[in-house]
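User: Sequence recovery, please. Input:
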């Protein structure tokens, strides 16, 4: 999540992630009634050397000196604060945190981890409060929404399947491709207008976190209507929700009644503005 911007991946995990996740317990001791674990974990700059040799697109990447344990600890700190705008977690990662409740069903009261590589005393606290916050944040997060989004392909980062999409309003949106293979075809569109097909992924606040792109097409001629930042709709419109099952319509038809036939893009934009009031 910290490196690629998503907590899930299609296919086998990348090799850098396997190396970074190689955390081993070397031993344990006791101090003031607490159990101290001695862990060994590779620095991210060594485990993912090929990634740190490149410039980053977004400043969420951890320090080269950090380990996976430090990254995990910082996510714990963010979840404890209950920040609905954080870029360090998505809905899937929050759900994994909420499953940690079983850790405290026996004799474990809390776990402390170092949030930085040079920290002498672990400062990040994992306890039942963190688990409750993760559950609440996950429940608040709107589900992904299918979108068609157009804009200028501004940046590409092959190693993390990431790209930057610049909307017509000048806002930079982070996108993640399903697979590395798609990145090769994306290079031909750099600096050009594209149409992204995929899902909008939201933060617990409802603001856009990223776009999970399943397809990329040329975007020349696409109307500016499709260059607006997607907005989460956690509750369906009242008109649709109150319709009976036998008469309920879906998608565009639920709002407009019928899709326009011979209307131009300008006519369609005018209709949308009229409906919005």
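Assistant: Recovered sequence (277 residues):
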């Amino acid at each position: 999540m910290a490196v690629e911007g998503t907590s899930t991946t299609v296919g086998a995990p990348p090799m850098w992630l396997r190396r970074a996740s190689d955390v081993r317990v070397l031993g344990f001791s006791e101090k003031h009634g607490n159990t101290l674990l001695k862990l060994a974990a590779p620095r991210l700059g060594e485990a993912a050397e090929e990634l740190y040799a490149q410039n980053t697109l977004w400043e969420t990447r951890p320090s080269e000196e950090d380990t996976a344990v430090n990254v995990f600890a910082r996510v714990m700190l963010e979840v404890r604060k209950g920040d609905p705008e954080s870029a360090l977690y998505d809905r899937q990662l929050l759900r994994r945190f909420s499953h940690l409740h079983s850790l405290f069903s026996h004799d474990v009261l809390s776990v402390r981890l170092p949030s930085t590589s040079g920290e002498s005393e672990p400062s990040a606290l994992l306890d039942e409060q963190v688990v409750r916050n993760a559950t609440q944040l996950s429940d608040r997060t709107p589900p992904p929404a299918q979108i068609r989004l157009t804009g200028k392909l501004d940046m590409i980062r092959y190693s993390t399947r990431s790209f930057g999409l610049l909307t017509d309003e000048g806002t930079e949106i982070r996108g993640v491709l399903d697979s590395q293979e798609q990145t090769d075809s994306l290079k031909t569109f750099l600096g050009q207008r594209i149409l992204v097909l995929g899902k909008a992924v939201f933060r617990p606040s409802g603001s856009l976190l990223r776009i999970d792109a399943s397809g990329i097409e040329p975007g020349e001629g696409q109307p500016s209507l499709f260059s607006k930042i997607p907005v989460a709709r956690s509750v369906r419109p009242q008109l649709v929700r109150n319709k009976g099952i036998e008469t309920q319509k879906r998608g565009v038809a639920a709002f407009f009644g019928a899709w326009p036939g011979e209307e131009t893009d300008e006519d369609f934009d005018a209709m949308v503005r009229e409906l919005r009031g």
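The chain is about 25% helix and 25% strand.
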